[in-house]
Design goal:
Chain A: This is Elongin-C. The structure holds two protein chains of two kinds. Chain A is α+β, with helices and mostly antiparallel strands. Chain A has five helices and three strands. Chain A has a three-stranded mixed beta sheet with strand order 2-1-3. The two termini of chain A are 27 Å apart. The model of chain A has no long low-confidence stretch (mean pLDDT 85). By secondary structure, chain B is mostly helical. Helices cover 34% and strands 5% of the residues of chain B. In chain B, strand 4, helix 20 and strand 5 form a beta-alpha-beta unit. In chain B, helix 25 runs parallel beside helix 26. The chains are: A alpha+beta, B mainly alpha. Chains A and B meet through helix 4 and helix 5 of A and helix 14 of B.
Chain lengths: 101, 840
């Protein structure tokens, strides 16, 4: 896999401190993250390219990152199913609502 | 697992069978539809009418047809309609029929596992086939009525039984059911039960080409020996959205009803009925309906996911249809006919020309008279009159220039709009990626029974989930208990038609209401009679101290007495919705006025047939802060009523819903305009006597109007255009549904002035072509939803050519209706004009 350049990535940090480094374009699927990274005014997140989510646990954040990538894939035409484990659903929904995604 | 005991049934057997066995013997799965008609597992208990026969939620097991009386519940609960047994000794004339049917079914359909087999006695009104047994797949339950000889094709099966064809409300049906229940004692031929087809998630289904919904109740009722005058009554009481149904001749013509209780007769009836069960065609939009049509004979696909109370409508239709057939039992038919005639006028939409009463005439006459009236209105200085003049001049100029006939309004005003998009490559990918939230919601709804706790879930999500479950008919006591856990602050359930009295009692008795601020139990008629309230919600005065919003829409068993106790239990009510509560009368309003006169802010009384407007007027005047009054559908509302009401209470009025109050004329609009300066929302649907001057008055008086709902009114294009010119900037939601004369003038005005418009409904405005609507869409940048059902001049040029990135266009012919539509989130619930938090 080709190395991603630093400018193209963003780091999402979960409550437990896990860091997920993903494509910026993928992260922008979330309206909240998009606003954080692109709005004028200097958000610390924009400057460092890192966003912390103290309320979102690792498993959920991981699932969210998977969703980002799935979403890009879907928009490009490849429409598949996005599987969600039932036990995650409730928390995932609330996190998704927060992230506006 | 529900099991059946199979054995042959004969009347004698039935007569002897007195052992009520609560469970059914398991039968071999190989024969899913084996009929064991004779077993009335719940004979005695049935009589009581309780749906005790509701079997515990079972997994999808092979349907046990034997349980005629029992409807199996699918995993997601739902209510089983239990066919009450008629007296066991009555025998089961239908048993044989059922048997035949079962055999037939066996041969033909691949029955889906969870197909409860409705027993013949669906007499029970609790056709609560409302339960959503459907889990994505239409449960074809039910009995198929087919006589063996008919050799009907297998399609007929699909009847989803319990699913109330997406009808949420059981209220009407229940009333009828009650009636049926009364007659249950009598001997009557068994009906095969009702078939209901609900197409849930129909898209996936796709199996049967035609899924039909047959409303057995209606049939059954029809089959009753005695005509039900009362039935007509109940229909009257429970009016609902208009729908039409089509039935095959057999359906309607249950002509052979006749004899009671003899096997032979029953079979005859059965055989006679053969054929394809009627199909139910439900129109989604009430606006689209103009009068009723005769039922057609061919089956067609039923599409209903969303329900609304139609059962009553259907019943009525069915009755009417049945009536139109000549049958042997003439007297009964006559009674039906009379009932139908009595009710027909209420449901029909008469064209203005037909309307003989006061004033307004046909279109042509209206045009001339508006000229005269408008002179008067235009005499008043104001933006409306100016606008009218300008528009008229413009039209006249165009006409002179083009020398075309004035009647050809469509061309009288030029519109310049060029589609900018690429027509070919219309990016439908605007139907987008499903959001994660939505995916999760759906997952939750699917697995709702597995949720163990909703703690920490904010109210917003609870409501959305509840709504999703109600819509997919999966709502059940499990979820209700989850909602009621702890000390909830809001409980909203849009569809409680599945809720029985016991369930309601059980759930509410443990409910801690000390923090409850919002309680919405719509369509809960079945489960909430007066006496239950006394022991639960209204157990003691002040038991719901902070309740400010209460919605008991469709609680048809709630009467004045029950309401009195409720009101004493909830002293801080601000918003009360009693729509379609047929027993609520003017006395209730007095009660409300006495105890809540200073605090009540919103009162919804749509379709409460027992309320006489003038009788309740004195009580209404006691409300000092009433902001919302909704009296749609109450026909006794007259000009005098409105004039008196707004004279006293108009200063606070922010929303008035007067749809269907057909007696109103321009003078009431004049009164409203004079007395309600703060009016923000007005619904004038179906008021056919209004003319353009009404709009003039409105424009001159109510300057804060944000929501205007017109439907089937007779306003002219110029008048609407002038109104929009005058106040278009404040409009957020405009509905011009079926306002036939809307044309280019309006389009121009809207495009020019309605910058804040978020929702626009132009359905059935057939004078509009692509250019007009395209102009609107491109100019109204706040527009989020545009409805264009029935606009047959619009084509893909509009869809692909407009350049508004946000708008959702709904209703284009040939496009799947309402898929991937994200509608504007309707305000969650009333009390939306004033903040509620302050007083707590």
């Amino acid at each position: 896999m080709t190395e991603m350049r630093k400018e193209d990535t963003v780091k999402l940090i979960s409550a437990e401190g896990f860091e997920f480094v993903i494509n910026k374009e993928a992260a922008m699927v979330s309206q909240t993250i998009r606003n954080m990274l692109t709005s004028p005014g200097s958000f610390a997140e924009a400057q460092h390219g890192e966003v912390t989510f103290p309320e979102i646990s690792t498993t959920i954040l991981e699932k969210i990152c998977q969703y980002f990538h799935w979403s890009l894939q879907y928009a490009s035409g490849k429409e598949t199913e996005f599987p969600i484990e039932p036990e995650l659903t409730l928390e995932l929904m609330m996190a998704a609502n927060y992230l506006h995604t | 697992m529900v099991v059946l005991r199979s054995r042959t049934v004969t009347p004698q057997t039935l007569a002897k069978d007195t052992t009520p066995s609560p469970s059914v013997v398991p039968q071999s799965p190989a024969v899913p539809l084996l009929v064991s008609p004779a077993t009335p597992p719940l004979s005695a208990s049935r009589r009581s009418g309780r749906l005790t026969s509701r079997s515990p939620p079972t997994d999808e097991t092979p349907p046990t047809t034997g349980t005629k009386r029992r409807r199996r519940r699918s995993t997601s609960a739902g209510v089983c309609s239990i066919a009450k047994n008629k007296a066991v000794d009555e025998g089961n004339p239908a048993a044989d029929v059922v048997k035949q049917e079962a055999e037939e079914l066996e041969a033909s359909l691949p029955v889906s596992p969870a197909t409860p087999f409705l027993s013949a006695h669906r007499r029970s009104g609790r056709l609560a086939s409302r339960s959503s047994s459907i889990d994505g797949t239409p449960r074809s339950t039910g009995r198929k009525r087919r006589s063996a000889s008919a050799g009907v094709s297998s399609e007929n099966e699909a009847v989803v039984e319990g699913n109330p064809a997406a009808d949420g409300v059981a209220s009407e049906g229940n009333v009828i059911a009650d009636r049926v229940k009364q007659e249950a004692e009598e001997e009557t031929p068994q009906t095969t039960g009702r078939k209901r087809i609900a197409e849930s998630k129909s898209a996936e289904e796709g199996n049967q080409a035609a899924e039909r919904v047959v409303d057995v109740i209606a049939e059954r009722v029809k089959q009753e020996e005695q005509g039900n005058d009362g039935k007509g009554l109940s229909l009257v009481e429970n009016r609902s959205v208009k729908r039409t149904r089509r039935w095959t001749s057999e359906e309607k013509g249950k002509g052979k009803l006749g004899e009671v209780g003899t096997l032979g007769t029953a079979i005859d009836v059965r055989n006679g009925e053969l054929r394809v069960p009627g199909t139910l065609i439900i129109d989604e939009g009430r606006a689209e309906r103009e009068g009723r049509q005769n039922p057609s004979r061919q089956p067609s696909t039923v599409v209903t996911e969303k329900a609304s109370r139609e059962e009553q409508e259907r019943l009525k239709e069915r009755t009417k249809d049945a009536l139109s057939k000549k049958t042997e039992s003439g007297s009964r038919m006559d009674q039906f006919k009379d009932a139908a005639r009595k009710n027909a006028a209420r449901f029909a939409h008469f064209e203005a020309q037909e309307h003989q009463e006061a004033a307004p005439p046909g279109v042509e006459a209206a045009e001339q008279s508006t000229e005269g009236d408008d002179e008067k209105v235009e005499d008043w200085p104001g933006p409306f009159s100016t606008a009218m003049k300008i528009i008229r001049d413009r039209s006249n100029r165009m006409n002179l220039q083009s020398e075309r006939a004035t009647s050809d309004k469509a061309n009288s005003v030029a519109i310049n709009w060029t589609p900018r998009g690429d027509v070919g490559g219309c990016n439908r990918s605007r139907t987008l990626v499903p959001s994660l939230e939505q995916l999760c919601m759906e997952g939750l709804a699917k697995n709702a029974d597995a949720i163990t706790s909703l703690e920490c879930v904010p109210d917003v999500f609870r409501h959305r989930l509840s709504q999703l479950l109600c819509d997919s008919r999966k709502m059940n006591t499990h979820f209700l208990n989850l909602l009621a856990c702890g000390s909830p602050s809001e409980i909203r359930i849009r569809d409680c038609s599945w809720l029985t009295e016991e369930e309601f009692t059980d759930c509410v008795q443990g409910l801690d209401t000390s923090n409850l601020t919002v309680l919405q139990l719509d369509y809960s008629g079945r489960g909430i009679p007066d006496y239950v309230l006394h022991s639960t919600l209204a157990a003691s005065p002040g038991s719901m101290p902070v309740l400010n919003t209460l919605s008991l829409n469709g609680a048809y068993r709630l009467s004045d007495i029950g309401l009195r106790s409720l009101v004493s239990a909830a002293p801080s009510l601000r918003c009360l919705n009693l729509s379609q509560c047929s027993l609520v009368s003017a006395t209730s309003i007095s009660i409300l006025g006495d105890s809540l006169g200073s605090t009540l802010q919103e009162l919804y009384l749509n379709d409460c047939q027992s309320i006489d407007a003038m009788l309740m007027l004195p009580a209404l005047l006691k409300f000092e802060n009433l902001e919302v009054l909704s009296v749609g559908g109450i026909e006794s509302v007259s000009d005098d009523f409105i004039t008196c009401f707004v004279a006293v209470c108009g200063h606070a009025t922010k929303e008035l819903v007067l749809s269907g109050c057909v007696k109103l004329t321009d003078s009431s609009l004049k009164a409203i305009a004079t007395a309600c300066p703060r009016l923000q929302s007005l619904n004038l649907s179906n008021l056919r006597q209004l003319t353009d001057s009404a709009l003039g008055y409105l424009a001159n008086g109510c300057r804060e109007i944000q929501t205007l709902k017109l439907c089937r009114n007779n306003f002219s294009d110029e008048a609407i255009a002038a109104f929009v010119e005058a106040y278009g900037e404040s409009l957020k939601d405009l509905s011009l549904n079926n306002v036939k004369q809307v044309s280019h003038n309006t389009a121009l005005s809207v495009a020019r002035r309605a910058n804040n418009l978020q929702s626009l409904d132009l359905s059935w405005c057939r004078n509009l072509a692509d250019e007009a609507v395209g102009l609107i869409v491109d100019s109204c940048l706040s527009l989020k939803v545009l409805k264009i059902f029935g606009c047959d001049q619009l084509t893909d040029v509009l869809l692909c050519g407009h350049s508004n990135p946000v708008v959702e266009i709904i209703g284009m012919k040939m496009s799947p209706a309402l898929t991937n539509v994200r509608v504007i989130d309707a305000h969650a619930f009333p009390v939306h004009y004033s903040s509620v938090l302050s007083s707590m």
